Amino acid sequence: MPPARTTDTFIGPAPLPAPMRVRDWQDILADVVEGEAEPGGWRAVGGTRARGIGEDLYLGHPEAGLFQLKTYAKNPFEVRGVGAKLARRLDDEIGSYLPEDADGRFAVRQAAQDEDVAKSRAKHVQETLRTHAEAPTTTDHLFSDLMDALESPAFGPVDYDLRRRPEGVDSLSTTFEDAEDLLDSEFEELVEDDGVNRGFG
Fold first, then answer.
1. What pLDDT band is residue 182 in, cutting at 50, 70 and 90?
2. Which pTM was predicted?
3. Angle 147-31-109 from CA coordinates, rounded to 5°
4. Shortest CA distance to 158 belongs to which of 88, 94, 107, 83?
5. Alpha helices in 35-176 (DSSP H)
6. Quick one: angle between helices 139-149 and 115-134, nearest 10?
7. Would you tell me which of 28, 80, 155, 170 could form a disulfide with 107, CB atoms 3.0–4.6 Å apart?
8. What is the distance between the alpha carbons of residues 201 and 194, in angstroms, rounded to a whole number?
9. What is the pLDDT of residues 4-63, one digit of tens each?
10. What burial class does residue 196 get, using C-beta atoms within 10 Å of its C-beta: 0-12 exposed, 13-18 middle, 19+ buried?
11. How high is the pLDDT of residue 160?
12. Can you tell me the mean pLDDT for 153-180?
């Protein structure tokens, strides 16, 4: 009887995560909308791209991770762009680049499924405004309560400026340098295919 064979076991580092997928920017927002993260826990920072047309926006949530969008207005009626999920969670470093508080606020709007839902939301908004009008309040509380009334799936503070690049945008683009290069390449191809940089003759 042949001797039992032994199998060598190699213990090494865990497999690397799947490669980052670059997708249409609206698909990334759909992930945000359809996720189960607490709606009021989101934070965002955004501004002009480092070069070329368009804007960079980072959306982060402790439970959902970090997402990046690169977008531009192809025309007054159509926004185009790409995006990706950069991290599964926010550690202390990544979180420090997103505002805990800011002058601006952002919210993702989700259309009502039917007329009954729309009427219910409208009634809730009226009740919220009436309550805040009758009692001392703050703009932060009013905003949060209105977003709850509208059933927004994601909202929070945002440091956003189309005239400059906030420090958090530069820090995140440096932290995720490989992702930035890949997204920039895909974004430039999109712009080129759309012919936006060709000008008018």
1. very high
2. 0.80
3. 25
4. 107
5. 92-96, 115-134, 139-149, 167-175
6. 160
7. 155
8. 16
9. 444 343 333 333 344 678 999 999 999 988 888 999 999 999 999 988 899 999 999 999
10. middle
11. 92
12. 91
For residue 2, the 8-state DSSP code is: P
Integer Cα distance of 53 and 140 in angstroms:
32
- The Cα-based distances of 139 to 45, 50, 106, 129, 142 in angstroms read 20, 33, 13, 12, 5
Please report which helix (H) or strand (E) contains residue 52, including its range. Answer: none
Tens of pLDDT, residue by residue over 123-154, are 878 888 888 888 877 787 787 878 788 778 89
Name the nearest CA neighbour of 61 among 34, 29, 81, 87.
87
Domain ranges of the chain: 23-107+154-195, 111-151
Amino acid 166: pLDDT: 92
pLDDT above 70: residue 3: no
C-alpha to C-alpha distance for 31 and 69, rounded to whole angstroms = 12
